[in-house]
Amino acid sequence: MKKIIVDDMLLTKDLPTTAGSKMLEGYMSLFEAEAISRLNGAGYTISGKAEVGEFAIDLICETNYKGAFVKKGKLASPVAEMLEGDAEAAVCMDVNGSVRRAAAQNSLVSIKPTYGTVSRFGTVPVACSGETVSVMAKSADNCEAVLSIIAGHDDKDGTSLSDEDCAKAKEVSPMRRIAVLGNMLKDTDLAVARKIEIFRENLAAKGIEVCEINSDVIAASSAAWNVLMCAELCNNVSRYDGVKYGYRAENFSGIDELYTNSRTEAFGELLKCAILFGSDTLSTENYMKVYDKSLRVRRVVSEAFNALFEQYDAVMMPACSSFDYSEDIEDTAVFEENYYTAPASITGLPAVVIDGVQLVGKAFSEGSLLAFAKEYEKEAK
Amino acid sequence: MERETLRLLEMLNQLRLTEEQKEKVISFCNNREAALKALDAIDTENVERMVHVMPVLTVVREDIVSQPYTAEELQQGAPETDEGYWCVPKVME
Fold first, then answer.
1. Number of folded domains in chain B?
2. Are B54 and A332 an interchain contact pair (Cβ–Cβ within 8 Å)?
3. Fewer CB within a 10 Å sphere, N or C end of chain B?
4. pLDDT given at position B67
């Protein structure tokens, strides 16, 4: 029996799902995520659920209601830690890049598939227009094996693409030219910069042409993604009110206090910041100026990527600014750190993380990204 | 962000912040406003909104019950229930 880890953003029938929040402590779902059903059907068993930060919007897992997962004074990823065991892979929700950061920092491989190719049915909704069920593993082979099982159309997910579209994601074409996003190389620490440099040298040695480009449009993805993510999050978490399920405050004098006390006591500080910022972007004053503008910027970013894919097979960028986050890093730092992950999140494009580096490909190119990652791994050995 | 705006947002979102948290949120939102200047630099004149990253049509299906849960099952995670009802404090005096 093959073993799989799932993160705590995916609903499971026999294990509680908390999404890292006190609001859902002990919550048992009546149904499970489609991705899990497909893996069970293919003979996998869940060997454990990995903790996530509250609603998976944080850096790595530091806002989990039970406390940050810390090793040697640095923030650590519970899912990466669990992958040191005998599980073949982990299926995780990439909401704000934490999966890709964890993969890059722990020398693991991750694949964020094209939006709509893996069902989000049975996942805790946060930023629905960009979040994707992703796979992390010790090897690209394992990522590919698990992705091939969970990908495909699902009637239960209104954003699920057709089987015909999903099949395109299995096609493989070789990487010949890769663009490196120069804007994103400026603020990384030395270890990340060195990793990128070595990766570039390895690509050149393989005969792949590497060109450095700059794109202010792609670099602006984070600003727009933060708006869209927080606006969607603010609506999605409005369901948690202490009435139908989830945490209920012990003390309240009326219905309004029940709602307010329950949410105030159960939600963490980063989540509250994100809710209030998201709500502000949707206000009459800011809707057109900020929210609507971000939706239009999303299209501009998407078109900028499409123009690049006319010339290049993938765009290379870091997945994080550092391979180590200090345990006392500000929780709001994620809104700067997603500079590296927001381009793929806001556009729904696939991204592979291999050897600490992120490659973003055109829509439905995950087959090619994983084929490249497999070859890269083989040569590295 | 003004404190009065924050007070309204807290009320709308059913949250209550401590003084320290209010300072943090105001500082956070003000930092975000600075970051939003990157958006202003992008010309979006005549650019359509992109709500969905992939072409998604309105999905409809036959109105068939596919997950026949009982009321009891659906209420199993509720903080307080009584004979099939969710319990909340009195809303009318």
1. 1
2. no
3. C
4. 77
